[in-house]
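Dear H.,

Thanks for agreeing to be a second pair of eyes. The structure we're designing against is below in C-alpha cell form, covering all 259 positions.
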C-alpha cells in the first residue's frame, strides 16, 4: 500500500483531522446542521418505532440507566439537548424534577414529542422548543443538569456544542450523555458490525423511506470519537470528572461530567 492510500484510509477514519465531514446527504451542499434537521424531519413519523424495533427495545434500558445517574443529585431544572421526540425528557420525569426543557433543530421531531407529552398530561412539566445545540437559547448558569441522548455525534461542531452546554450549566451541575460507541471484543464486534452496517440500513430505508438516514447512522457512529477520546474532549472543553461507562458489550456508552 502506498503512502497516498494510507493517508486516504486515515482520512476516512479521522475525518475531522483531514477536513472531511460525515453528513446524511452526500450530494447536498447545505451544512451538516441543515442536513441533520432535514433528515430527522423526514423520518420523524417512523423514528420512535424504528428506534425501539432496531434496538430490540434495549434503548429504553439505556435511557433509564442514564437517568438513574442523576437521581442522587435531585436536579430541579434539566435541559435535554437534541431531545428529538422527547424520549429522554419523558424518562427524566421519573426522577421528579420541577421542569424539563428539551431543545432540538428538527421541528418534525419536536411535534411528535409534544403530542406524546400532551397524551401523558405532562405539558406543565416538560416543554420542547426549537433550539440549536451550539447556540442554546438560555443564559449562563441556569440548569442543574444537562442530558444528551444519541445526539452529540450529530453536532456540526462538537466542541462548540459542548462549550455551550457548559455555559448554561450551573457550577457543580451534572452532564449525562448517552451515545452509540463501537464494540471492540471478538466476536461481538463482528456480529454487531454486520448488523449495524448491512442489516440495519436496509430495514431503516424500507420503513422510513429515507435512503440516506440509516446509512448516515453507522457512518456517524464510526466517525464519532468515543471512549477515552471523547473524555479527552470533555476535559478540553472545561468539564471536570469526566467518565465513561460502556453498555451492552460497548454498543453504547454513558458519559458523565460536571461543571
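And this is the sequence the design step returned. I haven't edited it by hand at all.
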Amino acid at each position: 500500500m502506498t503512502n497516498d492510500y494510507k493517508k486516504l484510509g486515515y482520512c476516512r477514519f479521522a475525518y475531522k483531522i483531514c477536513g472531511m465531514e460525515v453528513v446524511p446527504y452526500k450530494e447536498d451542499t447545505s451544512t451538516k446542521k441543515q442536513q441533520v434537521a432535514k433528515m430527522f424531519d423526514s423520518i420523524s413519523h417512523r423514528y420512535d418505532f424504528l428506534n425501539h424495533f432496531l434496538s430490540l427495545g434495549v434503548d429504553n434500558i439505556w435511557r433509564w440507566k442514564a437517568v438513574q445517574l442523576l437521581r442522587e443529585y435531585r436536579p430541579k431544572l434539566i435541559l435535554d439537548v437534541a431531545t428529538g421526540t422527547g424520549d429522554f425528557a419523558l424518562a427524566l420525569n421519573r426522577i421528579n424534577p420541577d421542569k424539563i426543557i428539551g431543545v432540538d433543530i428538527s421541528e418534525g421531531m419536536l411535534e411528535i414529542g409534544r403530542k406524546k407529552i400532551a397524551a401523558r398530561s405532562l405539558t406543565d412539566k416538560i416543554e420542547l422548543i426549537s433550539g440549536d445545540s451550539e447556540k442554546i437559547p438560555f443564559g449562563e448558569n441556569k440548569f442543574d443538569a444537562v442530558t444528551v441522548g444519541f445526539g452529540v455525534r450529530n453536532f456540526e461542531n462538537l466542541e462548540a456544542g459542548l462549550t455551550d452546554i457548559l455555559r448554561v450549566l450551573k457550577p457543580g451541575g451534572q452532564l449525562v450523555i448517552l451515545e452509540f460507541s463501537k464494540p471492540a471484543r471478538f466476536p461481538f464486534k463482528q456480529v454487531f458490525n454486520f448488523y449495524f452496517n448491512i442489516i440495519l440500513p436496509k430495514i431503516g430505508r424500507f420503513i422510513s423511506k429515507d435512503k440516506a438516514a440509516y446509512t448516515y447512522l453507522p457512518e456517524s457512529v464510526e466517525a464519532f470519537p468515543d471512549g477515552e477520546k471523547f473524555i479527552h474532549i470533555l476535559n478540553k472543553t472545561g468539564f471536570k470528572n469526566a467518565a465513561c461507562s460502556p453498555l451492552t458489550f460497548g454498543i453504547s456508552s454513558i458519559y458523565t461530567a460536571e461543571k
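Two observations from my side: The domain at 32-181+226-258 is CATH 3.40.50.150 (Rossmann fold). Strands lie at 77-81, 99-104, 126-130, 143-149, 169-180, 240-247, 252-258.

Warmly,
E.
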